[in-house]
Amino acid sequence: MSDPFLIAQIQESIAVKQRLLDDSGWMAQLQEVCALALAVYRAGGKLLIAGNGGSAADAQHIAGELVSRFYFDRPALPALALTTDTSIMTAIGNDYGYEMLFSRQIEGNGKAGDLFLAISTSGNSPNILQAIGTARRMGIMVVGLTGASGGKMADLCHHCLCIPATLTPRIQESHLLVGHLLCAYVERGLFGQAEALQSA
After folding, report:
1. Using an 8 Å Cβ cutoff, are 41 and 50 in contact?
2. For residues 80 and 50, is the Cβ–Cβ distance under 8 A?
3. Residues 70, 138, 183, CA angle at the centre, nearest 5°?
4. pLDDT per residue as tens digits for the range 122-154
5. In terms of DSSP H, where are the helices of 43-193?
6. Short-list 197, 188, 173, 198, CA closest to 77
7. Residue 196 pLDDT greater than 80, yes or no
8. Is 66 exposed, middle or buried (0-12, 13-18, 19+ CB in 10 A)?
9. Of 122, 119, 128, 125, whose CA–CA distance to 166 is shortest?
């Protein structure tokens, strides 16, 4: 017999995603975000991604899907997770402090016309907030991924996709879903393979 605890965990995850699907406003904003990412790539820009902890892993996951491949073979797409270079991160942490961890990298690697994907389940991570400010000053579009409240970052991003959940695991599961949807949308839009979903 299936464990009721495990069943409840799966049901909670499904319920969050169903709320997203049933929210026409949220779905419209998701489409705007995906279209924005596609436009950035068509204009020669790149995607910068950052987060802490599990959100750092999500940043690396999304960047990997874009640089390598998602559904099918195609040219690599420029995407940079700002969570991977230990020498850079420890230098910035030592010289400037942890709050500057991502903003300093955006300053060095970003340019106007790029897109910064800022991930924070609380919406209040100080280094993410600092990075958002730097990105905006540089003319970089900012998309936030956060939880139900949106936190401080909700009003700072050009678009903020708030997941209607308060438990970190449920929020993170939907953040990865958004990342996958963005990758699929961009890949299909740039390389025109209508059979993308069938060719995985």
Report:
1. no
2. no
3. 10
4. 999 999 999 999 999 999 999 999 999 999 999
5. 54-67, 86-95, 103-109, 126-137, 168-191
6. 188
7. no
8. buried
9. 122
Grade residue 194 by pLDDT with cuts at 50, 70 and 90: low
CB under 8 A, 24+ apart: contacts of 158-162: 158/36, 159/29, 159/32, 159/33, 159/36, 160/123, 161/26, 161/29, 161/30, 161/33, 162/26, 162/123
Match 């790029």 to its residue by tokens. Answer: 114
Give the chain's domain count: 1
- Say if residues 182 and 33 touch (Cβ distance below 8 Å): yes
Number of neighbouring beta carbons within 10 Å of residue 133:
14
One-letter amino acid of 188: R
Question: Which tokens in the block code for residue 147?
Answer: 């939880």
Rounded Cα distance, 37 and 43, in Å: 10
Cβ distance 81 to 119 under 8 Å? no
For CA atoms 160, 134, 138, 82, the dihedral sign is: negative
Name the residue range of residue 117's domain. 4-198
Query: Cα dihedral sign for 156, 24, 42, 81?
Result: positive
Residue 11 carries which side chain, given as an amino acid letter? Q
Domain of 191: which CATH number?
A: 3.40.50.10490
- Render pLDDT for 14-55 as a digit per residue (tens, 0 to 9): 999 999 999 999 999 999 999 999 999 999 999 999 999 999
